[in-house]
């Protein structure tokens, strides 16, 4: 007998059949939205390709999980469990990366000059005053100053540098999550690479939670201190960040446990009823809600992404 890290979600037992079918249906409901976003050029956005692929893949994942929960052979298949762990390990991080790219596009869009910023002088008495030609009031001058924003190329560069580094580290987190899933097969069969599986799980979830916490801090600061940035999309991304952080924290907590059998029902094995409920509520549900939130809104219009997202251009996105 050898120990290995418990599988996230536990083995696909009969108790998993009903919730697996529910999530197959829920993810299938996102397919028409994905198709609509692809066909509508005003909503088409390459930034969300990771979330879209994640949603499509999870239809397959939960379908296989439902099948395995009713069949003894697939239930203990090392290859199938390897697939489950790889998809569970990389999916939520790809959503986090999409959130980062959306927030980058939103912040960069606010650094470009807005209408009226080219004029360095205050409005004329004729345009800003009353019809009788009175001088503009101080309140009118303040309104003009608030509406007219100058170009901020230095700030734009700093935003792109910061979020570029975060994107690279998110890719590293995705890679670590997939490695943990792929190596789970050898840990399950012989105990080999068990420590590597545990360490890469910790690293993957830890990096994701840390950077989402930083992103959450930035969103809170922007909501409070930067009036130029629209509040609704920032608050929207803040909620998605919180949901993804729940998944990462759940994975960190589960990774502390080990087991000697995939079908063990001992406490900590992730096969007890309470642990199964925790998986569906703290891992599967936040992932679906996050994907639904991102796919259910026109991100191209809301976050000023254009088709490609922020492409390091010195010109603002112009929608046609």
Molecular structure report:
This protein is mostly helical and 320 residues long. It is 68% helix and 1% strand. It is built from 11 helices and 2 strands; from the N terminus they run βαααααααααβαα. The protein has helices spanning 17-39, 49-69, 72-75, 78-109, 125-128, 138-147, 153-190, 194-225, 231-255, 273-295, 299-302, and strands at residues 4-5, 258-259. Strands 1-2 form a two-stranded antiparallel ribbon. The longest helix has 38 residues, at 153-190. The radius of gyration is 24 Å and the shape is elongated. 41% of the residues are buried.
Helical content, roughly?
A: 55-70%
Order of strands in the sheet with most strands? 1-2
- Number of H- or I-type helical stretches: 11
Query: How much strand content do the residues show?
Result: under 5%
From N to C, what is the helix and strand string?
EHHHHHHHHHEHH
Largest sheet: 2 strands, antiparallel
The average pLDDT is 85
- Kindly provide the radius of gyration, computed on alpha-carbon positions and rounded to a whole number of angstroms: 24 Å
- Count of DSSP strands: 2
Oligomer: single chain
Query: Structural class, from helix and strand content?
Result: mainly alpha
Global morphology: elongated
**Low-pLDDT stretches:** 117-133, 138-146
State the separation between the terminal residues, measured CA to CA. Answer: 64 Å
